[in-house]
């Protein structure tokens, strides 16, 4: 079946792209979603305490403000419902094919041939909205498959497993773990938290919105608009510490140390919770109840390395056996592999995995040389450490719409970013990243196995918006459609 546009993924990027296509009068498109519902990461991550670390007024589409968010930092169910609301309101649902996983996409004769378990589709344009945090990763620990009890990744939470009174182990202390631990600590019999590297966890300025506030937001939209602008400006200012003047992070670090001392009275535990890398090098986390939860008598922070997993628990390198009933992996995602495990074949039979074997590259994080009419949303160099990814997605969607409009007006069959343009952009990104806090001496999910940061944008988000304001025809090589 032929379409003008195929979108892969039904999360924020895919839904936002679809809405803009419809608003531009383009109806001949389809969203291919491998799951049975939309939402992306907000559909997959249903673990206890799942919530966003960006305030709700900013973590939403600019064209569809929500005036009745229940609190300043939205929880997973509310974000997922917001996305469903947007899809319904803007007539996107009828364009989604649920339960349709893409296995291969191949560019031939000016078209993308997209293979799925449900058959093949053909489209002039292919847009990937798969995101960066969609494929859970499990650690390579000896004996992992031998564990006798229930085990699962945090992004595949098994709600059929009862945790009350059980001995539970969580491996990992990232963004998911610091939300899960406080939620389950009170109900489990014993919780062992295995920490390889301590995170920086700062205060979360969260609270429910009062009734009169929500009424005011609804009655006077400009009030919410000002709230959004204020939040944006505050969060954008943090880029100074991340990408411009990393030494500014030391001020935040001193504040972190002070807060840690106030929340964790035990000196030994407090020492184990102080990270051994500069603040901001890894993702900074926010929580008001993580550290108090670690001080509970039934919670143990384990800092010894894991030697192996056994049928009955976890053995650490000191020889100690930690008996466990339920094992939870809060071990993150394959964040630098982007479109994998799909096989994407571009011009001349070139495979994307081969082109990216030393790290993903895309001009502005959107277009890739050798892959005509392929556009990426939330691609390399577009993740943030300080602001809302929705803002970045809207910038990318506008850029893609500009490319599609230019193709239509000029009667083009395909456009492809030039190799020298992509190379120059990648070189600039790497040069700028070298002076950021993300390369200050730590391993993080922003890096490939070779130590190359490929996820993050090393600058202000308004600078990215300016860079993606409209496509520059000089950046592309084009092929005119033949009759």
Can you give a write-up of this model?
The protein is 30% helix and 19% strand. The two termini are 20 Å apart. The chain folds into two domains: 2-135 and 334-480, FAD/NAD(P)-binding domain, CATH 3.50.50; 144-205 and 231-329, FAD/NAD(P)-binding domain (3-Layer(bba) Sandwich). The protein contains 14 helices and 20 strands. The model has no long low-confidence stretch (mean pLDDT 94). It has 483 residues and is of the alpha/beta class. The longest helix is centred in the last third of the chain and has 22 residues, at 389-410. Strands 1, 2, 3, 4, 5, 6, 17 and 18 form an eight-stranded mixed β-sheet that branches. α1 (12-23) packs parallel to α12 (389-410) and α5 packs across α6.
């Amino acid at each position: 079946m032929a379409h003008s546009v195929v979108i892969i993924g039904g999360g924020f990027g895919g839904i936002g792209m679809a809405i803009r296509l419809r608003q531009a009068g383009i109806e001949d498109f389809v969203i291919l979603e491998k799951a049975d519902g939309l939402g992306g990461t907000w559909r997959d991550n249903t673990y206890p305490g799942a919530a966003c670390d960006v305030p709700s007024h900013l973590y939403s589409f600019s064209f569809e403000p929500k005036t009745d968010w229940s609190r300043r930092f939205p929880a997973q169910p509310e974000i997922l419902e917001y996305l469903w609301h947007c899809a319904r309101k803007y007539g996107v649902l009828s364009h989604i094919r649920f339960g349709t996983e893409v296995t291969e996409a191949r560019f031939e004769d000016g078209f993308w041939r997209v293979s799925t378990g449900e058959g093949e589709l053909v489209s002039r344009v292919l847009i990937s909205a798969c995101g960066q945090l969609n494929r859970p990763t499990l650690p390579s620990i000896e004996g992992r498959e031998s564990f006798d009890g229930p085990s699962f990744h945090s992004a595949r939470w098994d709600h059929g497993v009862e945790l009350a009174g059980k001995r539970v182990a969580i491996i990992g202390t990232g963004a998911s773990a610091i939300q899960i631990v406080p939620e389950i600590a009170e109900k489990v019999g014993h919780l062992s938290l295995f920490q390889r590297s301590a995170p920086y966890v700062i205060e979360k300025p969260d609270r429910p919105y009062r009734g009169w506030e929500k009424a005011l937001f609804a009655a006077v939209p400009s009030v919410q608009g000002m709230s959004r602008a204020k939040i944006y400006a505050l969060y954008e200012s943090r880029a100074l510490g991340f990408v411009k003047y990393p030494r500014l992070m030391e001020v935040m670090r001193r504040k972190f140390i002070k807060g840690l001392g106030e929340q964790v009275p035990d000196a030994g535990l407090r020492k184990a919770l102080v990270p051994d890398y500069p603040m901001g090098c890894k993702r900074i986390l926010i929580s008001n109840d993580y550290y108090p939860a670690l001080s509970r008598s039934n919670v143990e922070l384990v800092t010894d390395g894991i030697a192996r997993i056994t049928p009955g628990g976890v053995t650490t390198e000191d020889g100690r056996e930690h008996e466990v009933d339920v094992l939870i992996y809060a071990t993150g995602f394959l964040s630098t592999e982007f479109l994998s495990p799909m096989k994407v074949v571009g011009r001349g039979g070139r495979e994307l995995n081969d082109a990216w074997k030393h790290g993903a590259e895309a001009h502005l994080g959107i277009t890739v040389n050798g892959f005509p009419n392929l556009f990426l949303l939330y691609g390399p160099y577009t993740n943030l450490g300080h602001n809302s990814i929705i803002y970045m997605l809207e910038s990318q969607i506008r850029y893609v719409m500009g490319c599609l409009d230019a193709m239509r007006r000029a009667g083009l069959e395909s456009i492809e970013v030039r190799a020298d343009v992509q190379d120059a952009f990648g070189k600039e990104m790497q040069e700028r990243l070298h002076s950021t806090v993300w390369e200050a001496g730590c391993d993080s999910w922003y890096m490939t196995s070779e130590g190359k940061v490929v996820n993050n944008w090393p600058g202000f988000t308004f600078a990215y918006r300016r860079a993606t304001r409209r496509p520059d025809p000089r950046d592309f090589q084009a092929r005119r459609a033949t009759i």
